[in-house]
Design a protein that fits this description.
Structural class: mainly alpha
Number of domains: 1
Strand content: under 5%
Helix content: over 70%
Radius of gyration: 11 Å
Distance between the termini: 15 Å
CATH superfamily: lambda repressor-like DNA-binding domains
CATH class: Mainly Alpha
Largest sheet: none
CATH topology: 434 Repressor (Amino-terminal Domain)
Shape: globular
Number of helices: 5
Number of strands: 0
CATH architecture: Orthogonal Bundle
Order of helices and strands: HHHHH
Length: 78
């Protein structure tokens, strides 16, 4: 199982690379800012629907986010 903290770290990195605050990004993704903040902190795990919304807000396919999560997970296992 992938720890929610890893997912949150990846989401935060993508958002920061896009140069957006949580407030701006969550608005673009159609997510409540508090909910999105909990995702980044690893307090919640995103649903598939949420990953699609995040990918759309970043203008990238969701599988790229999943691939980054998988790579971060594998790096942590080593």
């Amino acid at each position: 199982m992938v720890e929610p903290e890893i997912v949150g770290k990846v989401l935060k990195e993508y958002r920061e690379r896009a140069g957006m605050t949580q407030e701006v990004f969550s608005g673009l993704a159609g997510l409540d800012r508090t909910h999105y903040s909990k995702l980044e902190r690893g307090e919640r795990a995103p649903t598939l629907e949420t990953l699609f919304k995040i990918g759309q807000a970043l203008d990238i396919p969701p599988h790229m986010i999943l691939k980054s999560i998988e790579e971060a997970h594998m790096d942590r296992q080593e």
